[in-house]
Structure formats: C-alpha cells, structure tokens
Amino acid sequence: MLEVQFKNVHIRYEQLTLFDNLNLSIHAGKVTCLLGPSGVGKTTLLRLISGLEHPYSGQVLIDHQHNNHHQNIAYMAQQDLLMPWHTVLNNVLMQAKLQGIKPNPTTAKQLLSQVGLEQSIHAYPHQLSGGMRQRAALVRALLQNKPILLMDEPFAALDIITKYQLHELCYPYLENKTVVLVTHDPLEALRLGDYIYILNNCPVQFSKVEPPSTIQRPRDPEDPVTMQQYAELLKRLSA
Questions:
Q1: What's the pLDDT score for residue 68?
Q2: What SS3 class is residue 172?
Q3: How far from 69 is each of 2, 32, 51, 63, 189, CA to CA, in Å?
Q4: Where is the ABC transporter domain (predicted)?
Q5: Residues whose CB is less than 8 angstroms from the CB of residue 83 and which lie 6 or more positions away in sequence, other chains included
Q6: At what angle do helices 105-114 and 130-143 cross, to 10 degrees?
Q7: Of 5, 74, 207, 221, whose CB count within 10 A is highest?
Q8: Does the pLDDT at position 67 exceed 70?
Q9: CB 17 within 8 A of CB 28
Q10: pLDDT band for position 127 (50/70/90)?
Q11: Longest alpha-carbon distance in the chain
C-alpha cells in the first residue's frame, strides 16, 4: 500500500495562486474523498498525483519518494476517453495492453456484465449513452488493479439507483488501495470514504471530516448517523 504526500506544494496559474505551501497526506490503503465547488482544485490534485501536472514548487511524494510511480496509478478522468474505433470490450482491455500486461477478457466480461453492459461488449462508444460510457470507463480503471486509484467524479453521469448499485459493486475493488475520489455528492463521500476533505477558498483550504466509524461499506444511506452527518456536510458546503 502506497501513501501519497504533498510537501509545500505551490500551484499558480498566471496571477491566481491555487495551492500555497500545501502539506497533505493521503493515507495508504484508504479511500479519501474530495468535496468542494467546481474549479476549486480537486482535479488538479489528481493530476499532480498522476504526474500529468507538476507543482510550481514543492514535492509530490509516493511512498516517500519522488513521484516516479506512474506504473502504480490508474486514473479515471471526468471524460470517459473511450477510443471510438474500438468496441467496449477492447476499450476496457486497452490500458492493460498499453502497459504490457496480458489482459483477461473473462474478467473484463464479468465486470461489464456486473455494471449492466453485457449486451454492449461489441458495441462502439457512439452507440452508448453517457452513463454507459462512464460505466465502461469505470470497468477499465478497475481492471488495471493498481495500488493507487484516482477517480474524478466516477459516478456523476448515473441515475441515483445505478450509482448506489455501483457503490456496492465497486467497493471490494477499492479495499486495500490508496483511492482518491472526487465527488460533488456528499452522501457518496459518506458511503465510500475513510477520509473526507472539503476544499474551499483560494488559495485552497482543506477541512477534514471524519465519516461515521462504520465497518460495513458502503455505508447505509438510511443509517441515522450517516444521514445526520449528511445534513451537517450540506450545511458546511453551502456555507
């Protein structure tokens, strides 16, 4: 299990300072959820971890070393990034092929079936709805089975019933991985997160929230403690 650390990270875009001497630890083997308004810097954090972006100053460390662990990271971006000339099945297997890993079509088909795409494995992206494309992208990320999983609004395009069903399906694949999940849904963060951070202001300030100490995951959205904390999160986010 790999820990991610931000050490005195400074990010500036022209005259706008987004992060100023950011020091933050992402716990190894835990699910960390990021909440906050659009444009506050949640996606930038994922890009810094993945190595797609570099700080103006400071360091991003993985396992206490400079960020050279890209082979240990799976990144599910907001856009599904499916290749239009490949079928759904080939799309979800492609990342493994690019990394020199022999893909497992049987496992891929099983996961696609579990997310409701069993009838679409030979379809092309243009034949899918937005939610179906997002589910295919989710399967592609899970199949990589990396110790660090970065997820940028992975369930945003889904209806609430499908979203909660996928929480149940996905959670076993998140256990014992260092997961950073960006979401605008505080209940989703409470269901899945070991740690929750609210991001606001500019430069960004981080406010830590301790989810209910429930062993069973995903947490039951009807649990009174979860619902109470959901109401409190909504107040903090609206403030």
A1: 62
A2: helix
A3: 10, 19, 9, 9, 26
A4: 4-226
A5: 90, 91, 94, 125
A6: 140
A7: 74
A8: no
A9: no
A10: very high
A11: 51
Strands 195-200 and 205-209 turn out to be antiparallel
Q: State pTM to two decimals.
A: 0.90
Amino acid found at 88: V
Of 11-15, 62-66, 105-109, 233-237, least confident by mean pLDDT is 62-66
Closest C-alpha among 107, 6, 12, 97 to residue 58: 6
| Helix extents (H) in the chain | 42-50, 88-98, 105-114, 130-143, 160-174, 186-192, 224-238
CA–CA gap between residue 156 and residue 131 (Å, rounded): 8
- SS3 of residue 133 by DSSP: helix
Q: 233 is written with which tokens?
A: 């999160």
Looking at residue 192, what is its pLDDT? 92
Contact status, residue 147 vs residue 173, Cβ threshold 8 Å: no
Q: Which of 72, 49, 71 is nearest to 180 (CA)?
A: 49
Lowest mean pLDDT among 94-103, 119-128, 137-146: 94-103
For residue 68, give both structure tokens: 């050279």
